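Q: What residues go here?
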């Protein structure tokens, strides 16, 4: 095995638009992010979008991103914008804000 240095985690901020509030999106995101082993949080935005800040390995973040594109049953995701973020989640684990 080759030593490739420390395992780098990344932090990504997602903003999900569409019919994503009032459909259990935050609770479902919490379950999915926890299943993937990510840290961070999810919250509703005043404009009707849902915002997610997630920290983890590239593969974990790609899986979350793919999941966010459809969300839970009842959600109608129109768009997912993601931007790298330097903000690290303040606490370990994943939470609803």
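A:
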């Amino acid at each position: 095995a080759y030593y490739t240095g420390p395992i780098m985690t990344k932090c990504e901020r997602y903003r999900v638009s569409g019919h994503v509030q009032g459909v259990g999106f935050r609770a479902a995101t919490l379950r999915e992010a926890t299943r993937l082993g990510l840290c961070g949080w999810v919250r509703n935005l005043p404009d009707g979008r849902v915002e997610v800040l997630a920290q983890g390995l590239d593969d974990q973040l790609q899986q979350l991103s793919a999941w966010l594109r459809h969300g839970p049953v009842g959600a109608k995701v129109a768009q997912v914008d993601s931007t790298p973020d330097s903000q690290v989640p303040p606490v370990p684990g994943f939470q609803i804000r």
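A: Context that may help when evaluating the design: The mean pLDDT is 92. Strands lie at 10-19, 39-44, 50-56, 76-84, 94-96.
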